[in-house]
Amino acid sequence: MSExxxxxxxxxxxxxxxxxxxxxxxxxxxxxxxxxxxIFVAGKNSTWIILALAAGYILYIIISAVLTQRFFLYxxxxxxxxxxxxxLNRKHLTLKYERIQQAEIHQVWYFRPFKLTILGxxxxxxxxxxxxxxxxTMPLAQQLRQRMLTESASSKADDNVSQNSTTNTSNPVLTKxxxxxxxxxxxxxxxxxxxxxxxxxxxxxxxxxxxxxVVPWVEQHLDWFNTESAWIIGVGMTVGALAVxxxxxxxxxxxxxxxxxxxxxxxxxxxxxxxxxIRTLSFRYPxxxxxxxxxxxxxxxxxRSVVNVSQLQPRAAQGGQGSQQFTLPVVxxxxxxxxxxxxxxxxxxxxNWQRLSPxxxxxxxxxxxxxxxxxxxxxxxxxxxxWLGVAAAAVGWILLQTMVVLSWKNYGxxxxxxxxxxxxQWFVVRRGVFSRNENWYPRHKVQQIDVQQGPWLRxxxxxxxxxxxxxxxETIRYLPSSEAQELQQQWIEExxxxxxxxx
Length: 503
Description:
The protein contains 17 helices and 20 strands. The strands form four sheets. Strands 7-6-5-11-10-9-8 form a seven-stranded antiparallel β-sheet, with helices on one face. A six-stranded antiparallel β-sheet has the order 14-13-12-17-16-15. The chain folds into four domains: 7-156, PH-domain like (Roll); 188-220 and 231-256, no CATH class; 261-356 and 411-496, no CATH class; 358-409.
């Protein structure tokens, strides 16, 4: 083996390590709740504590980022990439190309003017961690990624299905570019700003905004609220605020998924998108753990779906947190049918949906039946609501009970085989009231099967059938005991005798 030539990343990568520290702060913000509580208890004279902590943390992450860049070295060999990291505790990591599970290129906005990028690698030999090499030139990053994926594919003997398909083909099987109009629809469908707004309501309420600004303004314009046109203006302001939220969500969607292009090449699925930061995500079919097809109310109105593919990451297999899912934020019905075929999912007409036993309604309905009279009594006596309060409790009970029945009615499960040449065995669950969600799991990748039966279920002769996978768990409630035990035994034998790769 020739002597390694160690290289240091450019100085601009200090920004990468700095932002990485800030991302860790946001991720672990819940750990700082005791600190925030102590500051809150200290009262209004604790402003200097907040400033001191903020200044100290900023100084710490700047020094840490500079030192991390200084001690981060990499060397490229014929069969591996070598990394030296750490400030006090030095580490030497060797990434063998043949052990690479995943390699992605991420062009962040602050690297693009310098024509630099980040190469993210998931390696079976990296203790289950994602390794990021920042500051590589684009040609070098692309060359390394291609070499890693080629060596990885040639070193693995995939299952029978992957042997019958081409891992790397000269011409992609499927290529799809998503126009701007579709990306706008994606922003309308998946509006996370409403969730963020709900999270920020309580912190905002602690800033005295209501007492200092809102209440005085309302008192000054109290006469205006008594005018006939006040409600029209109020409705207009509410609609305007919602429009601003949707507009902001569309802008975020355009920045995130601008130029989204999907390429299916053999068993590799790749999506590239981004306006400021360009990200390339991909997965190999043998690593697929679950497919989620989601249609919330807005997606149903727009006749679109959101497709998520969960893939097994090495650190997720060891109990850590997996990386970002492979997501197509908006697909129409025509393309969804094509993509389902590429994922080897059965056509909708082949799925024989089975409904839960009506006994599954007992639990929720019983609680509603017990709580409704209590609420009616509270509204009638304690809140002085009279019969109007009783009527409100009755209406609430009817609405909630209707939701329970609709949820039971729309729930379905099925055990089905694909109708393509390479037969795939799937377990699928659908649910939703206003939305429609389908979760598909390869049957041979089920990790654990539990049969849960309490005293009440034993008395009725039913059981809960629980399937555990790397992408989550699913429960079929109130399944007849004999059927559940038969399924458990059948699946255990099938999974144990299946020679196909699990990841």
